[in-house]
């Protein structure tokens, strides 16, 4: 029997689940984590079997797209077991897309098997093509390893989308290099505005903030951009660069222009469901999950949570004050 699909109070059908499978990471990006991050005790995490059960419940309730994220999803031990488990939903046709967002450090090892599980696209976060700057931004990362991972993904037949966080005073001077590199390599590219998430141990996020409207103006000074009508239900807007034929995305999560079509929710590695990236409200799904092997209570908890999905978020960078800042880190909710 098909369950009634999840729909929130604003008549938005929930089709997209982002699931953070770990809060841990082998990098310490300056805008994402402090260098001395404390991670959750392993016992707090959902097991791979629990993640399977929870994600399968969402698929049964109408989720069509699953994005695995973190922390760094590919550092979670045994994570390929989870991908193999989710492949069954692709095979049955219940799930349309299984994908992941990764820093690329472990892709060289896993790309082939991810492709075998039915993954067709990966988002790889890469903010610079300069090895020294890469190390400065990620603190612990090595650019060469990520480039090898990207090459392995392509060799395995995966499409690659590069996610680049626009960072004032860091990658501003590389704007054209990054765009041209993606054009030459055949990668899609999306720029992301820095969001006020988590305590950065003294780093002022407003110092890192480079608005995408300024970034866009700089692109327009060199190329002809055409707005594309494409919408994904998320905060991305797309343009085509006429000279290169490339599609470029802009994610401005602080603008409110996407909330009305929001089709997504986020699950943390401890089973908390966040109905909005920019709000503190969440529902604990681990308790109903562990309370009974039967899924009835779990389904009811998911439906009750979706019934609380807010209309939109409260981020606001205006007047150089961060309003509506949320205390958790992006690596907790899964970016
Ligand atoms: N570790 C993986 C990665 O880096 O792709 C997946 C998790 S990471 C939290 C997901 C995305 O969030 C990355 O593209 C990262 O650049 C972005 N991100 C992290 N902190 C952010 C922030 N404060 N503002 C905007 N984007 C952020
Ligand atoms: Fe790790 Fe991704 Fe956060 Fe960087 S952005 S610290 S790679 S989780």
What does the model show?
This protein is an alpha/beta fold and 335 residues long. Helices cover 31% and strands 17% of the residues. It has helices at residues 48-60, 79-92, 107-116, 131-138, 143-155, 175-185, 205-208, 212-222, 286-291, 296-306, 330-333, and strands at residues 16-20, 65-69, 97-102, 121-125, 159-165, 188-192, 225-228, 236-241, 247-251, 264-267, 272-274, 282-284. Helix 1 runs parallel beside helix 2. The protein is globular. Residues 317-324 have low confidence and may be disordered. The structure holds S-adenosylmethionine and iron/sulfur cluster. The site of iron/sulfur cluster has 12 residues, from loops.
- The CATH topology is given as TIM Barrel
Beta-strand portion reads 15-25%
The chain-level structural class is alpha/beta
If classified by CATH, what would the architecture be? Alpha-Beta Barrel
N-to-C span: 33 Å
* Number of separate strands: 12
Biggest sheet statistics: 12 strands, mixed
CATH class division: Alpha Beta
Query: Rounded to an integer, what's the Rg over CA atoms?
Result: 19 Å
What is the chains' assembly state? single chain
């Amino acid at each position: 029997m098909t369950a009634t699909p999840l729909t929130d109070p604003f008549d938005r059908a929930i089709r997209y689940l982002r699931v953070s499978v770990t809060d841990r990471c082998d990098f310490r990006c300056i805008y994402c984590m402090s260098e001395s991050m404390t991670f959750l005790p392993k016992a707090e995490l959902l097991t791979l079997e629990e993640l399977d059960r929870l994600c399968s419940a969402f698929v049964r309730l109408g989720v069509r797209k699953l994005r695995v994220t973190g922390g760094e999803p590919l550092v979670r031990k045994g994570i390929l077991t989870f991908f193999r488990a989710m492949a069954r939903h692709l095979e049955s046709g219940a799930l349309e897309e299984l994908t992941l967002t990764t820093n690329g450090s472990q892709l060289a090892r896993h790309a082939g098997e991810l492709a075998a599980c039915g993954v067709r696209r990966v988002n790889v976060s890469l903010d610079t093509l300069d090895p020294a700057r890469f190390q400065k931004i990620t603190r612990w990362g090595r650019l060469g390893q990520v480039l090898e991972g990207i090459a392995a993904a392509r060799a395995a037949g995966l499409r690659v989308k590069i996610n680049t966080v626009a960072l004032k005073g860091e990658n501003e001077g590389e704007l054209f290099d990054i765009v041209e590199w993606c054009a030459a390599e055949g990668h899609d590219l999306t720029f992301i505005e820095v969001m006020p998430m988590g305590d950065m141990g003294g780093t002022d996020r407003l110092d890192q903030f480079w608005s995408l409207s300024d970034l866009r103006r700089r692109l327009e000074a060199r190329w002809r951009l055409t707005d594309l009508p494409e919408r994904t239900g998320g905060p991305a807007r797309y343009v085509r660069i006429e000279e290169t034929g490339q599609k470029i995305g802009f994610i401005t999560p602080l603008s409110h222009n996407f909330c009305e079509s929001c089709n997504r929710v986020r699950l943390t590695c401890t089973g908390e469901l966040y109905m909005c990236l920019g709000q503190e409200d969440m529902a604990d799904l681990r308790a109903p999950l562990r309370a009974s092997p039967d899924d009835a209570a779990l389904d009811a908890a998911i439906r009750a949570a979706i019934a609380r999905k807010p209309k939109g978020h409260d981020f606001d960078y205006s007047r150089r004050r961060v309003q509506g800042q949320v205390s958790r880190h992006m690596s907790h909710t899964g970016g």
